[in-house]
Design goal:
DNA-binding; 187 residues; 79% helix; homodimer
Chain lengths: 187, 187
DNA sequence: GTCTATACAGTGATAGAC
DNA sequence: GTCTATCACTGTATAGAC
């Protein structure tokens, strides 16, 4: 019998999706085994620290993705092209609002206290990277900080309400408004 | 031995706080018995439907509170005084960002699917009530809808980030910005 | 590296005494 | 209306065969 052998990197996105859909407490090992087609034994081979390690690795993975695809461009590339790029990446990453933000979801219950620094760093870096880009685009620092915070607030709030209302168009509408609002500072 | 006899209405806020802190899955009956000083037997006396009924009753309670204190004023009172009143109530209800929104938290995992209509109705009514107030304040309907959505998005996103960053000042800052933004339409 | 079998604490829920 | 005792089940985690 042929058996598909998985690498850890193949499993992570599968497990991530379970956490995303069910939350930390809701993502039971049985749900995870069902989704990955891996037994508990195998899961513990990859993640000796169990469920908590799985979540930690996944959060790190999410963070790395955002660093590569969003934060570093904001920090290094030409500001407005990086910002334009951010909107595209955000829209596809969150699947137009059908996918939630794991960092945000974990922040809303006591799961936050397990992963305090990971969650905090993610949002701090996002806000600071966007603000820095705006500053490089000649927006005054104080104003840039404010717009950046409002933008990340808008993205997270938009994702939440998109799910709460079960309305796919809601997140798109939120993004459109945010883009319009930030574009005022374009020359 | 004197025993304090509880009424259902006394228990609800205690149980609500457990759900708020731990989420639906995290709020185990043992945590709830500990917080209420009531045995499982007593809890099932008040809530024969168990945990799901507890959450449903609590969500209904939250909804009723918002209807009385925020939605109806927005729908009936002088628009700008109702909106001013909303900001005050929101700030104290969410304890300047230290308390999360149960409706929002439940929306972010599969708990949403247990309470779809309750969550949906809450946010729909809030958005529509605020928009209606703005329309009565002579803001064009389309613009009013947009501002209203942006405002509720801002409140929810602000609550989320306030917790994620563990920064009490964040929610206050968000509220200040939202108030400033909406006040542009004041005459 | 994958599995099955198992341990054992905790889960939501019920029965029945007081 | 409150409790204790107990239920069946699921939770995370581990041991050890292959």
């Amino acid at each position: 019998m042929t058996r598909t052998v998985f690498e850890k990197s193949d499993i992570i996105p599968l497990v991530a999706e379970v956490f995303r859909e069910l939350g930390y407490e809701g993502a039971s090992l049985s749900k995870i085994t069902a989704r990955t087609n891996l037994s508990k034994g195998s899961l513990y081979h990859f993640f000796p620290g169990g469920k908590e390690e799985m979540a930690a690795v996944i959060l790190d993975n999410v963070d790395q993705w955002f660093i590569s695809n969003i934060f570093e461009p904001l920090e290094k590339s030409e500001p407005w092209s990086a910002i334009d790029h951010m909107w595209q990446e955000v829209d596809t990453y969150f699947q137009s609002g059908q996918r939630i933000c794991l960092m945000g979801a974990f922040a809303l219950d006591e799961t936050r206290d397990r992963f305090t620094t990971a969650i905090q760093q993610y949002f701090v870096r996002w806000i600071e990277a966007l603000s820095a880009a705006l500053v490089r685009a000649d927006v005054p620092k104080e104003k840039a900080d404010q717009i950046s915070e409002e933008t990340i607030v808008g993205i997270q709030g938009g994702l939440l309400l998109s799910r709460a209302l079960n309305d796919n168009s809601f997140f798109e509408r939120t993004l459109t408004n945010l883009i319009q609002r930030i574009s005022v500072y374009r020359n």
